[in-house]
Amino acid sequence: MPRNIVTNTPLSPSLADGPELFQMETDLDGILILLGESLYSSPDVFIRELLQNCHDALVLRRRSEPNLAGHICITTSTAEKSITFRENGIGMDYGDIRHVFSVIGSSGKRGGKGLADLRTMAETELIGQFGIGFLSAFTVAARVEVFTRKAGDDCGWHWTNCGSLQCALEPSARPETGTEVTLFLRDEYDFLLDEEYLSSAVVRYGNFLPFPISLNGMGPVNAVNAPWHRTKGEPSLEQCRAFIESAYHDFPIEVIPVLPEGGTRARGVLYITGERVPDYGAKGTVDLYVRRMFVTSGSRHILPPWAKFVKGVIDCPDLKPTASRDGIKDDDPATVELSRHLGDLIVRHLRTLAEANPERFARLVDWHHYHLKGMACLYPEFFREIAPYLPLPTSRGTMTLRHCLAAAREDAAGKAVPVLYYQKGEGAFSQFRRMAQSRGWLVVDASLPLDASLLKSYAGEHRGQVTLVRVDAGDPPGLFAALEPVQEERFRLLEGEIAGRLRRMGVERLVVRTRSFEPADIPALVMHHRDDEDLDDLRHSLGNPGISEAARMIAGDLLSKRKIAPVTLTLNARNPAVARLVDLARWQRLEDAALGWDAGLLDALLGSLFTTALMASGGSGKEEGDLLRQQLGGLFRCVLRLLEKHDEQQDLITRLEQQGGTTGLRHGLGDYNC
């Protein structure tokens, strides 16, 4: 004993002579509580464990009897509150029972005699591995009975345990080879006798076991084989699609068969779901099986993080289940390799689809717009593989990013760096498409969420090979022609009139300017400030139904605090209506009463010029709507006043005609009114 430790407790004589050796005892009741409350997530996991044992016993017997018609039968008795699992597998002898049932944690498939002698032969086909699965029966049963007879033996055995360390073993006159396990349920678990519940659990855990499973004489209740089990080659896409529709009640847009390849022995199918997946935080999910035995549903750790739009079902014998067998070890090399392999398969399929059937790929992108384009922006490895094939609407129709870049290079006609134009205003593309066509430009419509970010990322990947220019913000080079000084002076009065009148209507942060551009039938454009692009992204994020409430609050707070830059109303000097408004503004300013113009009419006309341009640029918020209603009301009132003046003129003409000498007056005023 170390000197710095002082104790008044006398040592026992045995410890004084050396360490005492003793054997730890097992509290079976405590172990069962641990299993029921901590290890297993559901009380019906005993079904999975017993089905695994049935499967392994049948596999082992088939090693010596290849033509064996193996089967698993499950029966229930409401009178006895019991569930019985019966199979015609290899069975157990006295040594097997003593080894498996008398040592907790022992597995007949991992060591010892009897069944262990066949472990090496069947190690790639057996499912059970931990030796504690059978104990799951005691989480729901008050008593468990086992009748068994091993293949080739004349005598069978009967084993009984009532949930304690004491068990009974005696010979049995069981006539057939195999094992029968009966669980006598505790009262609180009698719901497990419900046939619909039990059938659902059997299908969930053993749907792909290669042996038919019957329930109370009906069956098989399991599918036995999925499409990838029925053939050594690749199952057809139609078979995979029909399986997904039947088993998962989903209607896949694309199906991707998974077959052994390289160092991965996985089989199954991935599919791109037909369901909308708007949530950025969502993850792709896969149901996992190990040697046909169900392990977990909806695993979110097996697919790459960018594959949010993908689901599937995979059976891989290399995966290592956790001790509870309701999950897999995420850091195991087999799991990492499978995740990499599935990611490669998805990328390969998308790339092949984009090249072979671009129309179908475009429909897929449209359906899963947020995730395909969003993940391309977030994950460089996915971006490099998929981004060139992503379609975008342009002034020349739908084109992929790589085709947009090729067209920009062709349009450059020898210039140092090609220019790729885009616009972001929602609903404004029609007018910019016409402007682009008049100049021979290619303009990309990037008004949908993430499209502008995708363009910027793509331009960044091709830095020095293309320049990205937004045409609906600032003063993009080449889009407008400047005015001569005389023209500038002529339009300056109209610009001031529009700015002043709109300011009186409550329109702030407005700059009015005049440029010359084609086509001439577009009277005006509203151009946004370049600094507002990040605000557009925030507005788009608020419109995404999948955004979390916390992110929505942050985006809303940023929008409320951000100072909004002024918009620019760009008048078109080539438009006849704008040229006419220049004259009207001058007349109104000189108060040329002879023309009889109403000041309210000019207010409404100038305001409508701005509002129509604003709506054409994609503005559709409350402020724009209020302004439009205000101006339409003003126009309506002006029309009423003009009608009143027209009636007054008609009355005047009638009175003058009655007095005589007014023959030409009606004709002259009629011409004026027209």
Description of the structure:
The chain is α/β, with parallel strands linked by helices. Among the domains are: 188 residues, Heat Shock Protein 90; 130 residues, Ribosomal Protein S5, domain 2. The strands form five sheets. A seven-stranded mixed sheet has the order 5-4-3-6-2-1-7, covered by helices on one side. The protein has a five-stranded mixed sheet with strand order 8-9-12-10-11, sandwiched between helices. A three-stranded parallel sheet has the order 16-15-17, with helices on both faces. β10 and β11 form a beta hairpin. α15 packs across α19. The termini are far apart. Keywords: ATP-binding, Chaperone, Nucleotide-binding. Belongs to the heat shock protein 90 family. This is ATP-binding protein. Pfam families: HATPase_c_3 (PF13589), HSP90 (PF00183).
Layout of helices and strands, plus pairs?
Layout: H1 13-16, H2 28-39, H3 45-64, E1 72-77, E2 82-87, H4 94-101, H5 119-122, E3 141-149, E4 156-161, E5 167-172, E6 178-185, H6 195-206, E7 213-215, H7 237-248, E8 254-258, E9 267-272, E10 285-290, E11 293-299, E12 310-315, H8 333-356, H9 358-367, H10 369-378, H11 380-386, E13 391-394, E14 397-400, H12 401-412, E15 419-423, H13 429-439, E16 443-445, H14 451-461, E17 467-470, H15 485-504, E18 510-515, E19 524-527, H16 533-542, H17 549-561, E20 567-572, H18 576-589, H19 599-616, H20 622-659, H21 665-673
Parallel strand pairs: 1-7, 10-12, 15-16, 15-17, 18-20
Antiparallel strand pairs: 1-2, 2-6, 3-4, 3-6, 4-5, 8-9, 9-12, 10-11, 13-14, 19-20
Helix pairs in contact: 3-6, 8-9, 10-11, 10-14, 15-18, 15-19, 16-17, 19-20, 20-21
